[in-house]
Amino acid sequence: MVNHSFLEKIATLVIQDYSSNLAEITIVLPNKRAKVFLIEALKNETKSTILSPEIISIEDFVQDVASIRSVDSIELLFEFYEVYLSITEKQNQQSFELFANWAKTLLQDFNEIDRYLLEPSHVLSYLKDIEDIKKWGIEVENKTQLLENYIDFWKLLPLYYDSLYNHLLNKSIGYQGLIYREAVNNLNHFSNTILKRTFVFAGFNALNAAEEKIVQHLLALDQAKIYWDVDQTFLNDPYHDAGLFVRRFKESWKHYKSNPFEWIVDDFSQSKNIQVIGTPKTIGQAKLAGSIIENIINENPAASLDKVAIVLGEENLLVPILYALPSTVGALNITMGYSGKNNPSQILIAKLFKMHTNALSRKGGSYVFYYKDVLDVLTHPLIEPYAGTRNLVRIIKENNYTFITHNKIVELGSNQSNLFNLLFQKWENGSLAVLESISALLLLVKENFSNDNEEEKIAKTFVFSVFKVINKLINYYSQHKHIDNIDTLYAIYKQVIDVAEVSFEGEPLRGLQIMGVLESRVLDFDTVIVTSMNEGKFPAGKSQNSFIPYDVKKELGLPTFKEKDAIYTYHFYHLLQRAKNIYLIYNTENDGLDAGERSRFITQLEVEKKPNHNLTFDIYNPVLPSTAYQPMVIPKSEAVMERLKEIAETGFSPSALTSYIRNPIEFYFQKILRIREVEEVEENIALNTLGTIIHETLKALYLPFIDKFISEDNISNCFKLLDDEVLKQFKLVYKEGEIKKGRNLLAFEVAKRNVSNFLRIELDAVKNGDAIKIIALEQTFKRELHHPSLPFPVLIKGNVDRIELRNGKIRIIDYKTGKVEKASMVLKSWNGLTQELKNDKIIQVLAYVFMFQNEAKEIPIEAGIISFKNLKAGFLPFGFKEDKELDSIVTSEILNSYLNEMVLLLNEIFDINIPFEEKI
Questions:
Q1: How far apart are CA 513 and CA 542, in angstroms?
Q2: Given phi > 0 = left and psi -120 to 50 = alpha, else beta, which region is 112?
Q3: Can you give the pTM of this predicted structure?
Q4: Residue pair 337/318 in contact by the 8 Å Cβ criterion
Q5: How far apart are CA 63 and CA 72, in angstroms?
Q6: Each residue of 12-29: pLDDT tens digit?
């Protein structure tokens, strides 16, 4: 049996029956998409040149009958708000945001009432009566104002409906339901004007009451024919949802009392291979679809993919699918648009809205930007290369500007371009001015693209899609000036951009077809891959977005979720009807965002399995690597060895050595490649910044006492200078950062407290008779390390926080703002000193001893740490404890043992055969 597609059958019929008067034929299809395929089928059916019959979608046809233009949902909302304001007393009028919350649902209900030709006053007063009954038991005196308003709302619904209907009719515009109702009212006039035309309705399934009436009217006048595409399996089973609507029409339409019902086919029960495959997550489904296509190509490389379709149960799978397709696919046709939501130009506008709405919402007269919002805009890929604001970004980061006034940003952006001015122009002159400035901004951005570069062409397309949306909004706002609130504007913009799409360009009749469920109507394929076969996705599941309760819908004949499910069921089974190879892919994960149990359609196929159906079930899991992460290993090249020699000459710091112990890769990045951390704005003071401030404050307070013994008066004087000095250091280190409130104020107080506590301990020591002479503060020392096993001398160089002479001993001190315990400064064995990171502080202070040894002459040296989070413990000296004896004086013997360990570490660093290996 030849398995002709439905459109091929329609083409054959049209050519056979109407070839003499094709110009008087109008073929009406469920969607615009099928038109291209039908024209191709007509072309294949005829050998001679013919004029194509008119082919239109049902919606365009109904608009022609009604002579009314359709408006989109946002324009409709604006029109409804205008009507609402005109019939509502001033004191009861709601803002547009509040109005929109209920108006959207109400408009959907108006649409359904009209599409099903119900008497609006009957339905809407029915709703009021239901609400009255709900509040039946409340005494009159107990009725609050809120309750009165609630009941009044339901009373007003018929007025809202009539006023909106007449308002739209006067403008010759309308929503879908209004157009359908007017088309039915205009039927007699329409059929009289088209006496010679014949309409062929093809491939329909669910018709609303208005469509039924129109089709039946034309059938009765013999001005139309209708051809269904229904399989006997679904039609003859009284419980099968795929045939729910067509069964009703076959039984109830007068036309079928005397005319045959065409066409009933028997395709579904033919031989089919159906593979049901479960795989985890959305991305797994995309990868799986890609590998199925790859297998199809490998099995027959010469065959075309024209009769292969990937039908996406969820549109967000489109991009993963495109990445998963093999490169051998060649021709490709994508019938769905690329969402306008996440393209770069949309993200730029969203960030611009965020920056300005946040600035407008801040209390106080000045227009203040938050640094993250500013940087988001300035570093955006459509702005950064062209605005010339790199210097401004650097200034903001280096100076820790957290909040920046409008005046300041204008002052800092010294060489302002038009682009810069449009970005930071104040949004204080109403919504229309904002939209016009965004429109001008997008035109400027467009100018920066070249037409020769493919990627820039794509970026330009995205900019154009947003530009169209903005111009649409300018059009709305210039007609409806009373809606003037930036937050409302942003909410409306988000709604419009959500439905705005960028179309793919392709050859619709060649290559692999990728489409959504609705685009697949009327089309037939040999191989079908359907994704997202999960409950809640395919079928979409219940959604009660209506003021009309379920039982009322049932009584009035309005569609409920049962009918919506039946529409999905028809689409699904129609996809399978003529296909030979079917792959149904579902997500095996039951929890998470895109999860849900396996679709009931799969269970239905299993339970009602036909003898000729070969049904298999598989679960595919991705191959998991045995190791989650492979540590980096970088061999030492000649260039690396040269750089190491250079470091040895300029100086190894103790922190460089400890960074190698911590992680050789970190050392490689920082010291060999000289990669610095990116400068960021420090919104809250980081611990290292706080440490710098404390260090610098102590240095400034003690600087006058270098080479002097400290007295009690000196320290008492430091207490007086303390507050001003900490503030001064904050300004120097933290620059323009905010320190008068929040966590930074606490950090400021912590810094003062730490320095104050340190001075108190110092004062107590002097009172107790300690003789303290400051030798050096924050001074850099260096010394070459010579050793027979080293390939060349190595300079050890570092910055020592403080060196003092205390009671006849030299004391080398390193300040730590973190917590250090005494135990971490005690060493029991030299073995493995450089293997363990916990010894980093010992390595550091002993390096300072080595550097200062020559200056100390014969005076005994001790070296250690003062921990600001453990000030009670005082000075924590390094101690070597081999037996029971703890020696805190660093002797030559101790220093030599230390240097031997350092030489081992340096030799490892300089060994060309030992690569830099990452520690995890």
A1: 29
A2: alpha
A3: 0.80
A4: no
A5: 14
A6: 999 998 888 888 999 999
